[in-house]
Design brief:
The protein is α+β, with helices and mostly antiparallel strands and 130 residues long. The chain is 17% helix and 28% strand.
């Protein structure tokens, strides 16, 4: 009888442990952002996985060459037209935000504050969990 009670207790505890992580995993510290050099998710594409609350400075071929961008679910991302995620001391550094998917398959449709679009202007990104 003791063995049966112990086995049932262990089994119920393990099923509780297995059920929880599905919702927690996407929020555990890393963002996921998909970048492409051409509109409609074409050209050179790469998924970046930086830690949340850090600045990701883009390098070649994505720095000033991104035409499509999309963060994963539970990602709130701010995109900047400067390296350093706007930490230049200038409070007027342009940025735009995306809260989760689908993102933008065509950055030529996203207006830039001084005219034109955000196409080929992204240099850095900062993401947090939402």
């Amino acid at each position: 009888m003791f063995f049966l009670t112990a086995a049932l207790t262990l089994l119920s505890a393990s099923s509780l442990t297995l059920a929880a992580p599905a919702e927690i995993i996407p929020r555990q510290g890393t963002a996921s952002i998909y970048f492409c050099t051409d509109v409609n998710w074409k050209g050179t594409c790469q998924n970046f996985v930086p830690p949340f609350e850090t600045c990701l400075n883009l390098g070649a071929p994505f720095n000033n060459q991104t035409s499509a961008v999309g963060p994963a679910a539970h990602n709130y991302c701010r995109f900047f037209d400067t390296q350093g995620c706007g930490q230049t001391g200038n409070p007027n550094v342009p940025f735009f935000d995306i809260n989760g998917p689908p993102g933008y398959a065509d950055l030529t449709t996203v207006p830039y504050p001084s005219g034109g679009s955000w196409n080929d202007r992204i240099q850095s990104v900062h993401c947090s969990a939402n």
